């Protein structure tokens, strides 16, 4: 009973990850086709910055800021 649920959950998780990866691959191909090499080179640093911002979001920085009523400086 539990083993069947675990197997179904793993299959569902893998299918959803594969679907999301496939859906994100199509816009990547379109962008690579539309952009000039100079534009694509400019997009790389922007992607690094966006990845860093997403990482900060995953760390819960926004929730930590909202948690406090007043933001005090430590200086």
Report the end-to-end length measured between terminal Cα atoms.
58 Å
* Largest pleated sheet: none
Outline type: flat
Based on CA atoms alone, the radius of gyration comes out at 20 Å
Number of strands: 0
* Average pLDDT: 81
Task: Give the amount of beta strand, in percent.
Answer: under 5%
State the domain count. 2
Query: What is the helix content?
Result: over 70%
* Number of alpha- plus pi-helical segments: 3
What structural category arises from helix and sheet content?
Answer: mainly alpha
Pattern of helices and strands? HHH
Q: Low-confidence runs (pLDDT<50, min 5 residues)? A: none
Structural overview:
This protein is mainly alpha-helical. The protein has two domains: 1-34; 36-65. It is 83% helix and 0% strand. The chain is built from three helices and no strands. The longest helix is centred in the first third of the chain and has 33 residues, at 2-34. The protein is flat, with a radius of gyration of 20 Å.
Give the SSE layout.
Elements: H1 2-34, H2 37-58, H3 61-67
Task: Write a compact overview of the structure shown.
It is built from three helices and no strands. By secondary structure, it is mainly α. The termini are far apart.
Name some characteristics of this structure.
flat, 2 domains, mainly alpha, about 80 residues
